């Protein structure tokens, strides 16, 4: 995510949702899925980007080894900027920690999910001890 002036928020298009969701993998019968709730899928929200909040679509899925991963797309002045969420692990119940990366850099995100996994409130930063910038999402 970048550290430049933010642009006015805009509505994420259905085409972007379809594009990002194509990387999602199925995992409905997985016992760990039942233990962690229905995390898989897309969340629309806002993320601190530049000097304000920009729209973001965050999508979570299981990779071929059953590990949680994700993608995100941030609405910017020139379109959308895509990024990845890797090395995701549960710190405690409902609190997912992931490594984020995009063309602007990499760092850590901590996302606290609601008990029904319909929303999350999180923070990101360039290092584990700097996760202070907001990132949230809710299922559409």
Entry summary:
With about 140 residues, the chain is mostly beta strands.
Explain how this protein is built.
With 140 residues, this protein is mainly beta. The chain has one domain: Lipocalin. 10% of the residues lie in helices and 51% in strands. The chain has two helices and eight strands. It has helices spanning 14-21, 31-36; strands spanning 41-48, 53-62, 68-76, 79-92, 95-102, 105-113, 119-125, 133-138. It has an eight-stranded antiparallel β-barrel with strand order 1-2-3-4-5-6-7-8. The chain is globular. Residues 3-36 have low confidence and may be disordered.
Supply Rg.
14 Å
Mean pLDDT: 80
Output the structural class: mainly beta
CATH class call: Mainly Beta
Oligomeric grouping of the chains: single chain
Q: Based on CA inertia axes, which overall geometry fits?
A: globular
Largest β-sheet summary: 8 strands, antiparallel, barrel
Binned strand content: over 45%
Regions with little confidence, pLDDT below 50 for 5+ residues: 3-36
Number-wise, the strands total 8
CATH topology: Lipocalin
| Count of separate DSSP helical elements | 2
Helix coverage percent: 10-25%
H and E string: HHEEEEEEEE
For the biggest β-sheet, the strand order reads: 1-2-3-4-5-6-7-8
Termini Cα gap: 23 Å
- What is the number of domains? 1
CATH architecture: Beta Barrel
